[in-house]
Task: structure prediction
Amino acid sequence: MTNQNIASEKTAPRDPADLSLANLMPRRPTVGPDVPVVLWRLLRLVSLHDILREETAAVVYLMGKRLGAMLGAKSIEELHEQLTRLKIGKIDLSVNTPDVVHLAIGECMTCDGITPPIGRAICQLEAGIVAGALETIYPGRKALGEETKCIGGLGDDVCLIECRII
Ligand SMILES: [Zn+2]
Result:
């Protein structure tokens, strides 16, 4: 019997899309839980744009929405803590009116340090994360996230995501 057969008797293959945050906790006692930001950028910016081209922004926004919902935040404060713990950047999350939430990201994981600026906003993943999280915080409502300032995309001081809750 091959090793593959033995493995399949133990557990049936699972869909990686069904993994929860608890399933994903790393076990790397000597290397540690983090990876370099440059590796993230090679995947998120270079590889994804190479494959998806003009569809990248829409696809990563949807990825972000799913990710934001998976966080399971129950309040703005909890979302602030989670985004900080995930090291997305220096997080400044504010509820401006009952229907508009702003997230300013300094030292953005995706784009701060990219020079010269690319010429268009590129942090749609982060916009999706906020929108997805807000839809779990405000059940029954829809959230639309848009990045209006971008450090590595447009040369701004922060990445600014404006989320409208409908
Ligand atoms: Zn950014």
Notes: The longest helix spans residues 37-52. The chain has a mean pLDDT of 94.
